[in-house]
Amino acid sequence: MEPYETPPRDVRQLVLVRVAVTLATVLGGASAAQAATFHVDSTADTADPTAGDGVCGGGAGACTLRAAIEETNAVAGMDTVVVPAGTYPVRSRLFITDSLFLQGAGVATTLLDGGGVSGLLWIHIPTGQTNEPIVHISKLTLQNGRAQVGEGPAGMVVAQRCYVTCTECRVRDNDSSVFGGGINNAGTLIMRRSEITGNELPQGGGGVTSTGGGLLNSSSGRLTLDETLVYDNYATRGGGLRNEGRAEIINSTISGNRCGGAGGGIYNSGTGYVLIVSSTITGNRANQGLSLFSEPALGGGIYNVGTTAQIQMGKSILAGNSDNRSRFDADYAPDCYSHETFRFTSFRSNVVGVVNDHCSFRDTIWGDQRFDEVGSAEHPLDPGLLPLAGPGGFLRAHALAVSSPAVDAGRFGSSSTFFDCRAVDQQGHVRPIDGDGDGEAVCDVGATEYGSDARAVTELVLVDTDADADVQPLADGALVYRPGLPPNLSIRAATLPSPVGSVRFTLDGVQHRIENIVPYALQGDVDGDYAPALLTSGSHTLRVEPFELADAQGAAGAPREITFTVVYGFELIDTDTDQPIRGLASGDVLRLSTLPPRFTIRANPQPATVGSVRFTLDGVEHRVENIAPYALQGDVDGDYAPVTLAPGAHVLTAQPFSAADASGTPGALLQLAFEVQP
Asked: How confident is the model at residue 290 (pLDDT cuts 50, 70, 90)?
């Protein structure tokens, strides 16, 4: 199946090119001369009269969500749209074509509502555009979308060469016509701590187009579900997920999905690859009373078909699913239907309800189930799961009963060959816990940990301290590229439960701060007004620990430790040591009396190596550098030459190009306004 690529009516054909985007690129962001932040202040659905003038609503009217997105589309760069609590009617689909932070106030309070008449979000690259959108969506709900016949998914479409993250999002109750009830992904999509629920696809096209009730991941798609619930979705094929690309399901739950044909939970086909780690797949149903010619109606939990389709699973539960057949039926396969040998392989420590001739589930080395707990058609294995529940009705998962065979069952595969025990479960609870009381804490199988009610740091987030709004999650290995971000930043820690007694921040091995009151921020806050933190150039290690009591006292919970790198567009370099002094940002003052006697300024474009960089100082071309590092006065094999800057105000620009000698395609311009004082 090809990715859905025909936007409705006035949007041109998408470019079908595969793309791989690294995490560093995503968190570095697309840079621009100056990023803009728009604060939505109206729930109306009206367009911007003069998109591209930098004024949301044209200055005469309110800043609506549609107007804010149109402004960000009009100018290249990573901009921010902040959407406060409220219900925002969407009467025609919103198109996002440029890099963007789209920030809501919470899944229960910021609601983008299609009203049963329109699709919601479509993220794509217009014909002729070269930049690839990087979009971070957080803390909002996409609901009640309804796509017209042939329009594609009603919730969200991610086209090829687009990279999207959704953190604490809910995609629910959308009614589509073809290819993905809630989401269609042909690019790269990461859903984290999110829910995809209640989306539907009707029978259509003989059922061929009614596929992927919750979401469809097409052959070009790269999908990650992390700490995410896929629940109560419906399609003819693949009630929860239809996959033909690459999908990773981690610490997640796929439950209660339905299909008329095959694959109640997951339908994997073509060259599709699915990796399932520490997840729970239960309560899904196939063969729900719909007969479509020769359409198979098999595999309540998983349907894996074809000689090139591949699923690998470790430390997971696949049990309690149904294919609406008696165990005496020749095609009985309630939990999995996968006939081809070694196309559904075990990475050990799994709990599988029914394994039979239709479910060829084998250890990746031994070719049997010696490292898994499995049942049979005659004696299905009860996974011992409690009803779906979660804090405040969100982040829901199936807790384990005390009698569950999944408790402390994750003994195998704790080497680098397979999967180590994750620090927290789907709901952020600490792993591992000694659930069976034998004195040894062993990771439970599935998405939740039995008996785990301890504290944990679940996420670290960059915060814009001017807007007091989240910018983006901060993951291990992240590149924080300052030109693509707001000028003043801090780091916020999210905990579960919230609040905890206190949180301790340790930066680069030194205790930095203890926070006793939520929100927990690296540099503190006053009633949610964050103080900016000084994030210097270079690599940093941040360790954040939750505690039971104030002032880092009492029992410690599960910490979170990350290493990240901060890169400024310009850096001040000591030319005697050839080492960086500090990053530079517009508005900085260089006091010569406090600086080394000889220095220069280095430009750091993204990507780090380009064809050339042209420096302009105070409106006059100063130098063209063809080889990295790119310095204002040049260098010889990294031995920098000093520059002389007269006292006063200066404006420095660095324009990267794809080819040598300032030729080829220009990249994102770097600009620095600064002052030199004696």
From this structure: low
Beta-bridge partner residues of 520: 493
d(CA 266, CA 223) in angstroms, rounded, equals 13
Q: Which CATH number does 23-291+298-378 carry?
A: 2.160.20
**Is 50 exceeded by the pLDDT of residue 40?**
yes
The DSSP secondary structure of 416-471, one letter per residue, reads TTS-PPPSB-TTS-BS----SSSS---PPSSS--TT----EEEEEEEEETTTTEEE
Residues 224-233: tens digit of each pLDDT: 999 999 999 9
- Chain centroid to Cα 260, Å, comes to 31
Domain ranges of the chain: 23-291+298-378, 467-525+534-566, 569-677
Three-state SS sequence of 297-313 = CCCCCEEECCCCCEEEE
Q: Is the pLDDT of residue 293 over 60?
A: no
Is the bond into 497 cis (omega within 30 degrees of 0)? yes
Q: How many helices (H) and strands (E) does the chain have?
A: 2, 58
Closest CA to 44 of 98, 9, 91, 93: 91
Q: What dihedral angle (degrees, nearest 10) is formed by the CA atoms of 522, 523, 526, 529?
A: -80
Of 425 and 14, the structure prediction assigns the larger pLDDT to 425
Phi, psi (rounded to 5 degrees) for 24: -65, -40
Residue type at position 65: L
Separation CA 466–CA 529 (nearest Å)? 8
- Write phi, then psi, for 542 (nearest 5 degrees): -120, 125
CATH homologous superfamily of 569-677 equals Immunoglobulins (2.60.40.10)
Cα–chain-centroid distance for residue 170? 13
Q: Let me know how long the chain is.
A: 678
Q: How far apart are CA 25 and CA 479, in angstroms?
A: 7
pLDDT at 206 over 60: no
The 8 Å CB, 24+ separation contacts for 375-379 are 375/319, 377/327, 377/332, 378/327
> pLDDT digit string (tens) for 183-202?
999 999 999 999 999 999 87
Q: Which amino acid is at 646?
A: A
User: Parallel, antiparallel, or unpaired: how do β-strands 599-603 and 570-574 relate?
Assistant: antiparallel
Quick one: pLDDT at residue 392? Answer: 66
Domains 467-525+534-566 and 569-677 share a fold: yes
- Give the residue with greater pLDDT, 202 vs 436: 436
DSSP string across 124-158: ---TT--S--EEEEEEEEEES-BPPTTS--SSEEE
Cβ proximity of 69 and 47 under 8 Å = no
Does the structure show a pLDDT above 70 at 217?
yes
What value does the mean pLDDT take over residues 329-357? 91
Residue indicated by tokens 């809910």:
170
pLDDT exceeds cutoff 70 at 671? yes
Residue with tokens 């807790």: 399
Q: pLDDT value at position 567?
A: 93
CATH architecture of structural domain 467-525+534-566: Sandwich (2.60)
